[in-house]
Specification:
It is a single chain. The protein is mostly helical and about 120 residues long. Helices cover about 60% and strands about 0% of the residues. The chain is built from five helices and no strands. α1 (about 5-20) packs parallel to α3 (about 45-75). It is globular.
């Protein structure tokens, strides 16, 4: 992302992947892949778009951090991650972004996701 401090971008990227560790394994895998794809896709965007991109991901990280913190404090309640997307924000999206959002929603709400995470129950030697 030209014009932005690479260290800021890398730190945000690492922070998001760390925050994803609190997600259920299937959502973590989906989220990690989406973050990697998005950061790769935005590597060469202009300064204004890069700034908006970082602001949105910083807001996402802040929400996820707060939800993880709330989850630790209220461990008896079912955890929900994410927030509703206001219609005004959707109106600012390009058609390509709407398509990506629909794909992400379909993948996240599939009863049987296209990948499965199997935790090994074998003792490590």
């Amino acid at each position: 992302m030209p014009g932005l401090h690479t260290s800021r971008v890398r730190a945000l990227y690492r922070r998001i992947l760390q925050l994803h560790r609190v997600l259920p394994p299937d959502l973590k895998a989906l989220g990690d892949q989406y973050v990697k794809d998005e950061f790769r896709r935005h590597k060469t965007v202009g300064s204004d778009e890069a700034q908006r991109f970082l602001q949105e991901w910083e807001a996402y990280a802040a929400v996820l951090w707060q939800q993880a913190k709330d989850n630790r404090q209220n461990s008896t309640e079912k955890t929900c991650f994410g927030i509703s997307l206001p219609e005004e924000k959707l109106n600012d999206f390009r058609d390509e972004q709407i398509g990506q959002l629909q794909e992400l929603m379909q993948e996240a709400t599939k009863p049987n996701r296209q990948f499965s995470i199997i935790e090994s129950t074998k003792p490590k030697l």
